[in-house]
Amino acid sequence: RNQWVYVQSSEVPLLPEGKYYKHELIGLTVMTDTNDKLGILNEVLETGANDVYVVVKEDGKEILIPAIADVILDVNMTDRVVKVHLIDGLI
To answer: What is the mean pLDDT of residues 21-43?
Structure first.
């Protein structure tokens, strides 16, 4: 309890299709559903209600994206892209 546990990434259990470990998402390119590049996913915050993705834009500014079904449309690990739908008030 209240301790960090470290394991080799090769030793963690496989997740079901469509599920990802948070560390796997870091570095993915975040694109809108209109194919505009938002930036790079830099951090995953745990808020209790849902995770929040911290996306860093090319100008260094951050955008906070809630990791909810209405916003996160697709995670493509092959292309390393997260596709999002921006709801009112996000930017």
So the answer is: 96
| Of residues 57, 25, 63, the one with CA closest to residue 40 | 57
Query: Given the structure tokens 């194919």, which residue do they identify?
Result: 35
pLDDT digits over 62-87, tens only?
A: 999 999 999 999 999 999 999 999 98
What is the pLDDT, as a whole number, of residue 10? 87
Secondary structure in 3-state letters for the chain: CCCCCCCCHHHCCCCCCCCCCHHHHCCCEEEECCCCEEEEEEEEEECCCCEEEEEECCCCCEEEEECCCCCEEEEECCCCEEEECCCCCCC
Handedness of CA 79, 36, 85, 68 (dihedral sign): positive
* 78 burial type by CB count under 10 A (0-12 exposed, 13-18 middle, 19+ buried): exposed
Give the integer Cα–Cα distance in Å for 22 and 45: 9
